[in-house]
Design goal:
Elements: E1 14-16, E2 28-36, H1 39-43, E3 46-47, E4 51-52, E5 58-60, E6 64-66, E7 78-80, E8 86-93, E9 101-106, E10 122-125, E11 128-130, E12 134-135, E13 141-146, E14 154-161, E15 165-170, E16 177-180, E17 200-202, E18 204-208, E19 215-218, E20 222-223, H2 224-227, E21 236-249, E22 254-263, E23 273-274, H3 275-279, E24 287-296, E25 304-317, E26 325-330, H4 349-357, H5 360-364, H6 370-383, H7 402-408, H8 418-431, E27 436-441, E28 444-451, E29 456-460, E30 472-476, E31 479-480, H9 483-490, E32 499-502, E33 508-509, H10 515-518, E34 530-532, E35 558-561, E36 576-577, E37 590-596, E38 602-609, E39 614-621, E40 627-628, E41 633-636, E42 640-650, E43 659-665
Parallel strand pairs: 35-36
Antiparallel strand pairs: 1-38, 2-25, 3-19, 4-5, 5-25, 6-18, 7-15, 8-14, 8-16, 9-13, 9-18, 10-11, 10-14, 12-13, 15-17, 19-24, 20-24, 21-25, 22-23, 22-24, 26-43, 27-28, 27-34, 28-29, 30-31, 30-32, 32-33, 34-35, 37-38, 38-41, 39-40, 39-42, 42-43
Helix pairs in contact: 4-8, 6-8
């Protein structure tokens, strides 16, 4: 079942905090309050896939996907159905699961090998025929409506027969797929597919119109030192006492409980426990996080969380020496966190081989701006295989592996299409120290890369046409766009505001694009999109599918964008979200925290970053020489204006953007 639970702070954030000496001052109590009420307040919180924040108040989404596979298989690992060969998929339902639903099944193999004489697949459940079976737009999936009256608590058997095919994922458990070769008289759960070579699960998923039994909303990390700061200077926090209040609507049969955890350094956390066990304590540490668990066993109602108020008495200490110090300017740093884990490619031998063997530094050399370097890399990737969409002598679809692609795409020896051009861009960009990832559109594959220059993710369309000179990106008012930004301009028909910027051709307004002449710049492709939740495909092909794009999409390891909480564009997938931060979290930025020092005219510098493959911090004081510094060092101020700058350097020697703090100290 796709009841995904992912907690906050599971990205590899690097928080560096000093272990300072106690400050010899008399502590004082500062009362603070933080409230979550609006859509924006709750949008900062991470959440499970079933949480709905589209209306006032947080509630459950009335949709639950049941599935026993993730589609990690091959396009031709199929069960061919006929009048004699039938397939069966079992679902075990709770009483609350007996609701109207839709059954999705992947029924299309490699189009080039489709048998035109295949009959349409017939589907029944518990002996009841389901009609009509429809194919989803522009996908290999089919769907049929399942009325609640056709279901029952316990075992429910869906039977496929008559024609068509089902794709199979190899697995031993939960052993709920079976094949019959005698028209349903007998069933074998261990011998599926071609010559009975598979023991696995058919790609069949059931989405029910019910509220899930449980889903979580998790707050951002609450830093009591930041909330108690004055003039931008963090005090020392010795202890905290919290009071927690919530405005909830809890209909009969629903649940809504609160849990919390604490930390003294923002990195090592206590276990989650009932909120009541923490609110009664007098000496909590500096960091605090809460989560709300919403649920409904019957599936027909949802609790609603309207407001959360956190009140705290913070025992703080601040030296008299900093009373004449105030922060007058500070670079803002986004604290957005994704609800989902992302696996970043780490340095290893094959990545280093890619960089050196193809002299990638030379590809980007001589270009002044970061954007120019990224465009040059994109253009090089596209021209690495000028003859695209040709399967070559092997008629083989290679995996997402740049070293294999660059050996096979010239002649070509194997297929190289948009999926593979994007693979080349992502992995060569990573080899140079950038953070990039795959983005899958509606029948097209592109890439996004984090830009330090623009402080955002930007989209690169590496291979969108047979003519390699049409590789492109999209801009609005001179700023490159992301996939979501492009989609948000396409939906209200504002394509006249978008400029298509080609690597070797003149830019053109999107509303003047002719897809037959200018490539796949048609924004209808942005009807839907998803991101890959890792960029380490050069290390391992799994989790993933071996021939992505060679046919339709079926693997459920990507995160698909949805405008609503109940999926409408991509309901056949279990991982969906309409929270922008789940797709567009920041990387490489450095957050500067200034804490009161022990001695007169001193501050202590703490640094926080989310930099993949982080190596070190570099710090510069008053425009002097950059120096490597460890967080927690003492900054001695001079009377008047003081400026400190900080940035990250990753293991590829790529420098992050500069953060800056300006402090004034009176004599």
């Amino acid at each position: 079942m796709a009841r995904t639970v992912v907690e906050n702070n599971q990205r590899r954030a690097l928080r560096f905090l000093r272990k300072g000496d106690p400050v010899a001052t008399t502590p004082s109590i500062k009362s603070i309050q933080k409230t979550w009420h609006s859509h924006a307040d709750f949008e900062v919180c991470t959440r499970d896939v079933a949480i709905d924040n589209t209306r006032p108040g947080v509630r459950l989404a009335k949709s639950l996907m049941l599935q026993d596979e993730r589609g990690r298989t091959h396009i031709n690992n199929v069960e061919m159905l006929s009048d004699r060969v039938w397939a069966r998929k079992d679902f075990i339902l709770d009483p609350g699961d007996v609701a109207d639903g839709k059954l999705y099944f992947y029924s299309r193999a490699n189009r080039a090998k489709e048998d035109a004489l295949d009959k349409p697949t017939q589907v029944s459940v518990n002996g009841r025929q389901l009609k009509p079976v429809r194919t989803l737009p522009s996908t290999g999936w089919s769907v049929v409506t399942v009325p609640a009256k056709a279901l029952k608590p316990g075992l429910n058997s869906f039977v496929f027969s008559g024609g068509g095919k089902l794709v199979i994922e190899d697995s031993l458990h939960p052993n709920r797929s079976a094949r019959s070769v005698d028209g349903g008289a007998t069933w074998d759960y261990d011998a599926l597919g071609i010559q009975g070579m598979n023991d696995g699960e058919y790609l069949v998923r059931l989405r029910l119109a019910r509220y899930p039994s449980e889903a979580k909303l998790t707050s951002e990390v609450v830093d009591f030192a930041a909330l108690a700061a004055e003039d931008g200077i963090f005090p020392h926090v010795s202890s905290v006492k919290v009071r927690f209040q919530a405005d909830v609507d809890k209909p009969k049969g629903t649940l809504l409980r609160f849990e919390a955890r604490t930390s003294d350094n923002g990195a090592d956390w206590s276990p989650w426990q009932a909120m009541s066990k923490l609110t009664g304590r007098d000496r909590l540490p500096r960091y605090f996080q809460w989560r709300a668990v919403l649920g409904c066993k019957s599936g027909d109602a949802t609790p609603t969380l309207q407001e959360v108020a956190l009140k705290a008495d913070v025992r703080v200490a601040r030296t008299a020496a900093t009373e004449a110090v105030r922060v007058v300017d500070m670079t803002p740093v986004s604290l957005a966190v994704s609800s989902y884990r992302f696996a970043y490619q780490e340095p290893f031998d094959r990545l280093e081989r890619l960089r050196k063997q193809y002299d990638l530094k030379k590809v980007t050399a001589g270009h002044k701006t970061e954007l120019e370097r990224l465009v040059a890399l994109r253009n090089w990737c596209r021209y690495s295989a000028p003859k695209g969409w040709d399967s070559g002598r092997t008629d083989w679809c290679p995996p997402w592996d740049a070293l294999i692609l660059l050996e096979t795409n010239q002649a070509p020896l194997a297929l190289c299409m948009c999926t593979h051009y994007s693979t080349l861009f992502v992995q060569t960009a990573v080899a140079l120290g950038y953070t990039a990832r795959h983005v899958i559109l509606d029948h097209h594959c592109v890439a996004e890369v984090w830009s330090n220059q623009f402080g955002k993710w930007i989209l690169m369309d590496t291979g969108n046409f047979h003519d390699p000179s049409y590789n492109c990106h999209f801009e609005r008012n001179g700023v490159p766009l992301s996939a979501l930004e492009i989609r948000q301009l396409w939906k209200p028909k504002r394509t006249n505001e978008v400029q298509v910027v080609y690597a070797e051709r003149e830019s053109i307004a999107l509303d003047r694009i002719d897809p037959k002449k200018h490539g796949w710049a048609d924004l209808k492709l942005y009807r839907r999109f998803c991101i890959a939740l890792r960029n380490n495909h050069l290390l391992t092909p799994f989790p993933g599918e071996l021939t992505h794009g060679h046919g339709e999409y079926f693997c459920d390891v990507y995160l698909w964008w949805e405008d609503s909480a109940v999926p409408a564009e991509s309901p056949e997938y279990g991982l969906t979200s309409n929270r922008p931060a789940d797709y567009y979290w920041p990387v490489n930025e450095t957050a500067i925290e200034l804490t009161a020092g022990k001695d007169a005219g001193t501050l202590i510098l703490d640094l926080n970053t989310m930099t993949p493959n982080f190596d070190r911090f570099m710090v510069r004081i008053d425009r002097k020489k950059w120096q490597q510094k460890k967080p927690g060092f003492v900054w001695k101020l001079k009377p008047g204006r003081n400026v400190i700058e900080a940035k990250t350097v990753n293991t590829f020697r790529m420098h992050g953007p500069i953060s800056r703090a300006v402090v004034e100290m009176t004599k």
